[in-house]
Write a structure and sequence with these properties.
43% helix; five-stranded parallel β-sheet; alpha/beta; binds uridine-5'-diphosphate; 19 helices
Amino acid sequence: MACRPTVVVVPKWGSGHFISALEAGKRLLATGRGAFTLTVLVIHAPSEAMASEVQGHVCREAVSGLDIRFLQLPAVEHPTCCVDPAEFASRYVQLHAPHVKAAIAGLGPSSRVAAVVVDLFFTALFDVVHELAVPAYVYFSSPAAFLALMLRLPALREDLTGAGFEAMESTVDVPGLPPVPPSYMPACLVKAKIQSYDWFEYHGRRFMEARGVIVNTSLELEGSILAAIADGRCVPGLRAPALHAIGPVIWFGSTDDEQPHECVRWLDAQPPASVVFLCFGSMGSLDAAQVREVAAGLERSGHRFLWVLRGRPVAGTRLPTDADLAELLPEGFLKATAGRGLVWPAWAPQREILSHAAVGGFVTHCGWNSILESLWFGVPMIPWPLYGEQHLNAFELVAGVGAAVELEMDRRKGFFVEAGKLERAVRILMGGASDEGKKARKTAAETSTACRKAVGEGGSSCAALQRLVREILVLPTAGNETR
Ligand code: UDP
């Protein structure tokens, strides 16, 4: 083991980033068949809740018997004066650069560092990776559509006034996608405007320095967008970074619970494809007025439902709390829907739920992991984007992939959803008669087959992973030039 090369992964905290990057690393490891090991540099997450979440994953993998070594980096002070999450993550990791350098340099004597793979927010680490003359890669846990947009940001800036996408009247050209109405631009770029824009633009520019960008997608899912990036349509005149579409990268591990989760036991008693599942990611929560509309919409739809309802984060934190159902839900709601609905107030085992035969539809906040998980299990969706790049993902899901029924949102009222709109979308998706619902269900089933084929032996993502491993193993190392 001592003389084998190692691939260093530097993942970002937060389940959507950390688990995905770790899983991608494990797939590299498995494809390498013992030719190299994996070293994960663990950055102390900025909040205790996130740190313990990361620790849970580290502890589980540390006893997996795989060739993975976890190195915890020393804690650093938090950067001051930044409220924007993209800016915070980018500046926070900048402060870790000397520790990252020391950790990578420290590996040198025992194992050659074949490549360093950093999270999409961590391109500031390229400076030290270049200094050490090690090839740098980005792991992009979001869709290729968002990658295309990030690469386009310098050019789009010219079309924007100070008010950002919100004030834009024309559609936005994201190569490979149909023209995107400005209201579908990611919330992280629209709301926070300039600060976020600057940082996403910064990372988009730096992707061009990478030896390659490893994307959690597949040719079958986003082929036209991957082709548009490769053809240089995002950054005309410059060579696009090499793309490695190795997805869907989904973690199928389970918790240590011996008993089936209560949500799963409840699903066991429901008929096949009868339940609509609602879940809003690791950071999604709704305000009290919106909760009342969801309750009314579900009640009126007449369909069975499993609703993961979380409480608002406490001040100064970003993670939702366990919900107080008695306080949040309208009086009489639980009684009126008893037997056909379950409201779960805490974290739920989403992948297990999506894999359950009783689930026939998914109202999702459109985090990319959630979309991929739903597609993997062939569950059609109703997109309800909240934060991050999710609005663009929702657009792609309806206008591109096609495995979803659109939910009408009042964009002028902060994307508020009225009960009647949710009721309508649920009836279309879950009811047997509508052509729109039939099409979404059929496309979801076909996409599931395509995703499984892509990562299976001989599939496009499996082949991309094999090419990437070959590239990493023969790449020049210390002393040679990097791009
Ligand atoms: N997740 C879960 N239970 C929950 C909420 C989320 O298991 O109650 C998982 C979900 O399966 C997915 C991840 O958390 O793997 C969320 O990632 P995604 O990219 O969808 O959204 P994010 O939370 O990063 O916004």
